[in-house]
Amino acid sequence: MGMKRIKTTMGLALTGAFFLTACNAGASTDGDSATGGSGSDALTVGLFAEPASLDFTTVDGAAIPQALLDNVYETLVTLDQEGNIVPALAKSYKVSDDGLTYTFQLQQDVVFSNGEDFTAADAVFSINQVKSDDWTISLKSQMDVVESAEATGDHELTVTLSEPSNAWLYSMTTRIGAMFDENGTENLAEEAIGTGPFVFDSWDRGNEIVLNRNDDYWGEEPYFNEVTLRYFNDGNAVNNAMLTGSIDLIGTVQAPESLAEFEGDDFQIIEGTTNGEIVLSFNNGRAPFDDLRVRQAARYAIDNQALMDTCWAGRGELIGSMVPPTDPWYEDRTGDYEFDTERAAALLEDADATGVDVALRLPSLPYAVACGTVVESMLEDAGFNVTVDELEFPAAWVETVFTAQDYDMSIVSHVEPRDLGNVFGNPDYYTAYGTPELQEILERADRGTVEEQTAAMQEAALMVSEDAAAEFLFLLPNLMVAEPGITGIPTNLIGESLELSNLARSE
Q: What residue ranges define each of the domains in the chain, with the CATH number in brackets?
């Protein structure tokens, strides 16, 4: 079978399953090279940045839902390959005319991997857990709009909102919508008990997570009996594993300049888009970035096209905002701060900040490290004095930057879908933005009609951009490499999970 190259114009509708792209790369294992790294009924996927825990209720980071969401844990509703909300554990649902009451009819004969039946009581428990102190991640705020959740039958759930919300049902397709068994949450950091097509088998820390096919799954049986998610810290090592025939699939290529190595008859190369905005984050809550002129100077200092060409082999898309082209309210904002070193220097001088010291604290992720050196040079050309620190990801970066907010600038890809409000709408978030004006716009977007939501979200994106709340370097591309027989590989990846049940091997 010859090489299949799939190219998708950035900005077209989603044509694949959802997949995390912030921190992925390849894997390796021993096996028959004729079928890649695994036997015909097994699959090895290489990823980058291992989870720090299996508990996404208390630990931030996208690697956990990447591995477990839609595979082990399922949600009431999910997204189809066109990005539409469709039933999942809820076989149907209806919304009241006033937009306040959601009634879900749940699938029957669904069993958790511990043998317990899934009922409406479990859905009530799961929703209330997000609202409780047991959930601590910032995304839990998306459940605040829920006034009550009630089991109105063994397999009927009624959720009442305190006010209409355009975002709530969409958020239920993400990790906050995961359904848990009330008796299966005692050790979430080490175990995962869900209803999904795979069951958690084992975790060899520093190496791999193994999932097995769920023989009691209520839905369509997945093709692979066993899937190994193996984690690497080096993108080139992943490529070498693929080239030597010891892996089946590279999740997301972390050395895009090396794609030429895979051109030929032995590999599939898939190139598409994601919703992973690579953000040069500013700490808006302290000097010097509490000064608009300094933030604007940083934006003018970055030559985005040259940066993307240098650090990511020109693969990706310039967007200029926190909205990817797959969102309905996308607008091209790349013209808001066009590259202008002289203007950046003048703004720093006007702010009496020429030569200001800034700490650029980077996660130890390939795109951040590669782009960080280019950003450092461009900022220094404009008059910043930059100190670069590389922090181990996820633990050290999450503790220092995300939690303690002990940083001036950072670089990270935000991969959660429709996350402008999460990243910039909360003054306590690590970006320390969340102005009252932006919060009002976001609230208006959430309560309004579809047309009003689109207009308000465009207004929010404009405000975040013009106020230079951050610099948006580029949109991370989806770059995947697979052995020829793997099918069901998504072209575009715009969600949190790597949905393994779509993958198969041609006979």
A: 5-72+188-273+478-505 (3.40.190.10), 77-177 (3.90.76.10), 275-476 (3.10.105.10)
